[in-house]
Amino acid sequence: MVDQMKTLDDYKKAYKNSVENPKDFWGKQAENFVWYKKWDNVLDWNFNEPNVKWFEGGKLNITENCLDRHLDSRGDKTALIWVSNELDGEDKKYTYRELHTEVNRFANGLKSKGIKKGDRVVFYMPMVPELMIGMLACARIGAIHSIVFAGFSSQALADRVQDAEAKMIICSDFNNRGAKKIPVKAVVDNAIKMGCTSVETVVVHKNTGAEVEWNENLDIYLHDLTANVDDYCKPEEMDAEDPLFILYTSGSTGKPKGVVHTTGGYMVYTAYTFKNVFQYQEDDIYWCTADIGWITGHSYITYGPLLEGATTMMFEGVPTYPDAGRFWEIVQKYKVNQFYTAPTAIRALMAKGDDFVDKYDLSSLKVLGTVGEPINEEAWIWYFEKVGRRSIPIVDTWWQTETGGIMISPLPLITDMRPTFASYPLPGIQTILVDTEGNTIEENEVEGLLCVKHPWPGILRTTWGDHKRCKQTYFSAFPELYFTGDAARRDEDGRYRIIGRVDDVLNVSGHRIGTAEVENAINETPGVVESAVVGYPHDIKGQGIYAFVITKGKISDEAEFKKLVANTVRTEIGPIAKPDIIQLVSGLPKTRSGKIMRRILRKIATGDMSNLGDISTLLNPEIVEEIKRKAKNK
Ligand code: WTA
């Protein structure tokens, strides 16, 4: 098991050591795992290429470390508690031994369909145990999993399947979500029709049992795939730098890119951060409410907790079904010790009133966490007072799909807390702030662009099929630095407060959405000439999506047309990217070189019309008045 810091002094020593001797520091953590062959070199790196290699030459399998190595000491310990969507539903528990068997059987099933090391397998599944079992089964045989959040549309799914050239898709028939039953297999069928020619097999998990269309050439039920397989599958020997998974995420330009994480470094980093940030103790029950379709679910529902032999939970449903007390009902029922969720959920529950939280016994809680977006002070205080009953530390964890694990976070009862501050970088994380020219900002109490100057084991290695894009996106803004895309402020004691993205990426309910992606989708609507999308502050979602749309000629039924635009976005990307506000305009403010002046649109979307700056240099300054007049947020 990796080291666990216990005191402020431990943290200070670990941090100092990790900066002065990063190889010693991480080499020592890595020694706590099972390696079939030890690494030759802890770290080799160059941010210009970029080329980062951790534990080069080391051979391992991450599932050996998540499962097999716990069998002797924790075989009968609960590894996974799965909580059903229904209040009176049948929850499920898996011991480490049971989970091991399930993963091995699934892995043998995959092999029987010809899946082997390096093949890509896409998952499009709700929060069911089979998703966790399936991802681990891939890791067992060295196949690269790519999990697509099951709220994305067929088109978005097809884009990802094609980019990854996946050989297999694994899905469910239907998804139970709150009061709804959502078709899953039908979305996959549609994606296949869009030309996912690399796909040879679609594995269908019978979830609700409802009828689905069947394609004899491709489809097989999961229970048939694993009907006659062995309970044991020898783990594939992986190189530390062999890819473990691809996870698609939105950027400021073009289509989502496939962030690639590799085996050894990701393993060490997720285990270390899990154990320290949540201060996990052997008998604790840990619950992260994220969806496994996002990085938080990868690192802190599946890998981090299982690597540390924890009891991890997975919840099928939504926080407001059957009512806004559901999270707290679950915390009470399972005596949850660490609870990790997103600010958007906290704000949504806060809006439903205190009664839902007051009536439950939450005395088991020891640590509360948040992730995914800046938490506003009001939500932080509500979380602290109502959920934490003023006595439990909150860890506001800042990190990204690309970072693999938590980077900046308080350590509960070890470092201090300041509301809305993610606080201090974890050991191994050398954060700096730079100005727009790339000069390091030494002083505190100022705002800057957040960068990291030294690799940590969980850093992304490339973007799938396009290494140049990885360099361009993360390593080109400033030489020798990893650029996060976020702005941050450092206080007088060195705590960081994350301000938010400085690129054209929105953060809607903790989901990353590129404005370019939404614009491309809107532009697919018949009758649309051009569009511009910006974010604006939204009480629950953090950011809402505001779309300015130029139409061809006059639209007779504006309401109907806006519905059409919204539906196109839903079809192209998914409901999470649907604009909250659509304003039809006759033009967009542009510079003389034809660039849309988003700065002006952002201000208008925010309702801050007073000081739009100098607009006289625009190609069409008169358009600003028109847009202002009809703006929705005044
Ligand atoms: C934002 C999620 C403020 C940030 C793990 C980052 C946060 C983006 C925080 C990554 C936080 C994440 N405070 N902002 N605690 N955590 N963010 O890739 O803008 O889905 O760049 O990873 O979310 O989102 P992603």
Tell me what you see in this structure.
The chain has 634 residues and is an alpha/beta fold. It has a seven-stranded mixed beta sheet with strand order 5-4-17-16-18-19-20, with helices on both faces. The chain has a five-stranded parallel beta sheet with strand order 7-6-8-11-12, with helices on both faces. A four-stranded antiparallel beta sheet has the order 21-22-24-25. 31% of the residues lie in helices and 24% in strands. The mean pLDDT is 96. The N and C termini lie far apart (55 Å). Strand 26 (505-508) and strand 27 (511-514) form a beta hairpin. Bound molecules: 5'-O-[(S)-ethoxy(hydroxy)phosphoryl]adenosine. 5'-O-[(S)-ethoxy(hydroxy)phosphoryl]adenosine binds at residues 249, 294-296, 371-374, 396-401, 422, 484-486, 498, 500-501, 507, 512.
Overall spatial form: globular
Structural class: alpha/beta
Ligand inventory reads: 5'-O-[(S)-ethoxy(hydroxy)phosphoryl]adenosine
Spatially, the strands of the biggest sheet line up as 5-4-17-16-18-19-20
Largest sheet: 7 strands, mixed
- Span of the ends, CA to CA: 55 Å
Stretches with pLDDT under 50, minimum 5 residues: none
Number of strands: 30
What share of residues are in beta strands?
Answer: 15-25%
